[in-house]
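hey so i finally got around to running the thing on that chain from the lab meeting. sorry it took forever, my laptop kept dying and i had to restart like 3 times. anyway pasting the input first so we r on the same page abt which one it is
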Amino acid sequence: MVGYGKPLYKFTKRHTESLLVYDTGPDARYSKSDHMKLLLTASLVNGFAEGVSHSLCGIPTGETLLSYIKSQKRKNVQSAFDAMTERNIQQLKRKRRLCRAVPIAIDWHDNMYYGDPKTPMIIGTQPKKGSHYAYEYLTASVLVDGERLVIAVMPIRRRYDVSILTMRMLERIDTMGIKVKYVTLDGGFFDIDVIRYLEHMEINYILPMQNTSRIKRMKLRKGRRFKYTTNHHCRGINQQASFDVVVAYSENKKYRYLFATNMSYSDDALLHLFGKRWGIETSY
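ok and heres what got predicted. didnt touch it at all, straight out
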């Protein structure tokens, strides 16, 4: 094979082939297996399908593969992904890897888009890499024996849906029978409804927050913990969120974190646990 071993290729093919939810037809020049060969080879060598197709024999062109991929319906792909994820989770349960509560990392991601902005599932975002539009989606990952496994994916249609989708994702994790040790989220998830949900469900969480005008007046020395209650002007007293804020400082990044949390850990412990989530940030 090109740049990788046959065992890795066979393993990847076995676990991803079901994600191509189209049929090539009896009269097609290339089989679905040929399509997988092109797709996986390009993925494993981090190359472009068109270039890889020129270097291998007996496989379709990149344009042919793309046309078949575009023919797939989103709901079918989502169903195939959910089924594959469920198989992975059941396999972990059989190996007794999910007997105990596990850390969960939730994040949202964007793949920049350069076509027609009216395309379904495309939303406006911060300008990056020459575009103002992107596919955006939430992911949840578990950390098991030092390895990360994606257990849920949800597309984002509107940015103000993120808090609702986050709660739905946690509900889905619960229905999977996965016990949550704690949840880490980045600052983009700081939302009163999300915090109220986590507190109500008694789910341990670590969530960075920005300095507010009230917090800036406090002495934010390393290790300090204090109670904080939001005061959003559009909400009544009973609709606000109350939580602990812990001040932590990263020597490596020379950065001060303010963690909203309901965990009693020290600032250094919270910073260590939060640091484990960075694998999900770079895995897409």
